[in-house]
Structure formats: C-alpha cells, structure tokens
Design a protein that fits this description.
Elements (H helix, E strand, L loop, with lengths): L9 H11 L9 H12 L5 H25 L1 H6 L15 H22 L1 H20 L6 H21 L4 H22 L3 H7 L4 H5 L1 H19 L2 H4 L5 H20 L8 H25 L2
Helix pairs in contact: 2-3, 2-7, 2-14, 3-5, 3-6, 5-6, 6-7, 7-8, 8-11, 8-14, 11-13, 13-14
C-alpha cells in the first residue's frame, strides 16, 4: 500500500503541516506582541513595522510548533490522545516537517533583519528557547514555565522591534505572559497525568497530583494579574481601558478555574482555547483604547 505521504502534493503537505501545528492558535500570542508594540510606540507604529512583527511571530511560532511535533512524534504515537496527529499517523514525513521548521526559522530571521539590529541579535536566542521547550518534559516538571518563557518573547520582541532597546515595562508584561501560559499549560497537562507518569515524563500534574496542580495553576494566574497591575506605573497613559482589560482577564481566568475541577476535565478544551484566546484579544483591545484614542 502506498504511504499517505507519497500521494500528497507540496501544497497538500503544507496544509497538513499547518493543521498539525494548529496555525490558527498563533492568535494566542499575537495580541500580546501587538500590546508590546503599541506600548513601545505609544501609539500605532508604521505599517512596515507591524508587517514584519507579524511575519516574525508567524515564523517563530510555526518553527516552535513544528519542532515540538517532530521531536515528540514517538511520544505522541504512544499517547492515545495524540496518536492521530499527522506525524505519528504517517500523514506527513519527518523530512517535510524539518524543511518547514527551517523555512519558518528563516522567516523569523528575515523579519528580525528587516526590523533593527537588536531584534536580529535577539532572534537566535528566541529560537533556542523555543526549541528547548520540547525537551524539558523529559527532565523537569518546570517545563510549563519554559513554555511560558517561549511565548513571553512575543511582547518583549515586539517592544525591541519598535524601540531597538530594552526597558522595564516589556519585561513586566513578558513576565505576566510567562505566568499566564504556564498556568493554563498546567491545566492542559492534567489530560496526560497518568500517561506522563507511566512514560517517565515530567509535568506539574504528574509530579504533584491533580488537586495541587489546580492550586499551582491558580497561583500562577494570580501572580500574572499582579504583574499586569504594575504596568500603569511603568507606562504613562494607561487608565480605564487597561483596567477594564485587567478585570476581563480576572473574570476569564476565574472562569477557567471554575470549569476545570478535580475529576472533571470534560470542559478543559473550552477553558484552554476559548477563554485564553478571548483573554489575549480582550486585553489588547481594551488597552489599545487608552493608547490609541485621545
């Protein structure tokens, strides 16, 4: 029987890869990149800058997700929840995914080069962090924090893209993103608690158990809200719009922790995808009102 990968055109293969990496979930980090961008510019920067920030974000996330799927393909094949993914199912070849990762990494580097020298210098460090995450579940339960660090580069990188320099505010915002991502990743990892234990993989749920993991996730999200609350002290002009966004974040995080309960993970996907996608868009939109409107 002819392998499925042998019958696919290059465009069909690309479509499979994009579905495999959940390309649409770039939405999670992009609003935080835009938030870092408008805070740095104290408004809306040039469309050229916006374009290359978007290109950099797409390249970075695509490279990271492709790499994760590639190095985890044997783990995914052994896990009933992930065995149907494209690589373990034979829908795409490792060589094709490797080529996709290389092209996505090159896209990030091109975008960084088009922005400014500091962004270009920072981009290889970002790739190292992005690729490192995929190995951390093999040796540390703090892998959730490394995933958070990966996405935390979005607002910091966007700030650097606009300013060409570091500052305190983007590091505070990036810290909030790190805690936000780590908190919801702990929730997501609850699905694989038993599999991770059997397979010798590391996660907070596998190390501490379901109820402590829920508590740790909640603590991470409380700390995230605390860091966000510091931003008005660091960025002039943040007022009612920002605090409306902050309140929305509080409610959305509370919703996640209300619907994901010990012994009941039936609504976990709703918490992970819907609430977190809305959270990032909501905070950007409301904060933009303070920055962009007189």
């Amino acid at each position: 029987m002819t392998p499925p990968t042998a019958r696919r055109s290059p465009l069909q293969t690309l479509a499979v890869v994009l579905e495999m990496i959940k390309f649409e979930h770039t939405l999670f980090a992009l609003p935080f990149a835009f938030l870092g961008m408008i805070l740095a510019a104290r408004g809306w920067p040039s469309w050229r800058t916006v374009l290359w920030i978007v290109v950099a974000m797409v390249g970075a996330r695509s490279a990271a997700m492709g790499f994760n799927r590639l190095v985890d393909r044997r783990i995914d094949a052994a896990n009933p929840r992930t065995a149907g993914r494209a690589l373990p199912a034979g829908l795409v070849s490792p060589a094709a995914v490797t080529l996709f990762i290389a092209a996505s990494s090159a896209l990030l580097l091109l975008a960084a080069w088009q922005l400014n020298p500091l962004t270009l210098a920072f981009s290889p460090v970002a790739l190292v962090v992005l690729f490192l995450y995929s190995y951390t579940k093999r040796f540390t339960w703090a892998s959730h924090l490394v995933l958070g660090l990966s996405l935390a580069g979005a607002p910091l990188g966007a700030w650097i893209a606009v300013r060409g320099a570091f500052a305190t505010a983007p590091f505070v915002l990036s810290g909030a993103v790190l805690l936000w991502v780590a908190g919801f990743d702990v929730l997501y990892a609850l699905q694989d608690l038993e599999f991770d234990r059997r397979s010798g993989l590391f996660s907070i749920p596998a190390r501490f158990g379901e109820v402590p993991a829920l508590v740790i996730s909640a603590v991470l999200h409380v700390l995230m809200l605390g860091l966000l609350a510091l931003l008005p002290q660091l960025v002039p002009g943040l007022g009612a719009g920002f605090w409306t966004g902050w309140t929305g974040c509080l409610l959305l995080l509370g919703y996640q922790h209300w619907i994901v309960r010990p012994g009941d993970l039936s609504r976990l996907n709703a918490a992970f995808f819907t609430a977190n996608g809305v959270l990032s868009l909501w905070l950007f939109a409301t904060t933009a009102l303070d920055i962009l409107l007189p």
